[in-house]
TrEMBL record:
Protein name, per record: EF-hand domain-containing protein
Positions of region (Disordered): 1-24
Biased composition (Polar residues): 14-24
Pfam families registered for this protein in UniProt: EF-hand_5
Domain EF-hand: 60-81
PROSITE patterns in alphabetical order: EF_HAND_2
Length: 81
């Protein structure tokens, strides 16, 4: 019998996995890529910031859906689905 503080106890409950998008990245990885590239933390990626992205499925122009010269987190998220 195991006492208090015993090692080897299995957690029970729902799976903690996060589904992957068609890009092969899960939403956490998508957010991490965006945050890491957003050097000034303004919530938008300039062309220079986007060039530092670890992963992109489209060109800057394709991700910039509203043609305002920056990529928002929503635009990047849509591009990785």
């Amino acid at each position: 019998m195991l006492g208090a503080g015993a090692v080897g106890v299995m957690a029970r409950g729902p799976s903690q996995s996060v589904p992957m998008g068609s890009s092969g990245l899960n939403p956490v990885e998508v957010a991490r890529n965006f945050i890491n590239a957003d050097s000034n933390r303004d919530g938008e990626l300039t062309r220079a910031e986007a060039s530092r992205m670890g992963f992109a499925t489209m060109s800057f122009e394709e991700m910039d859906r509203d043609f305002d010269g920056v990529i928002t987190r929503a635009e990047y998220g849509d591009a990785t689905r």
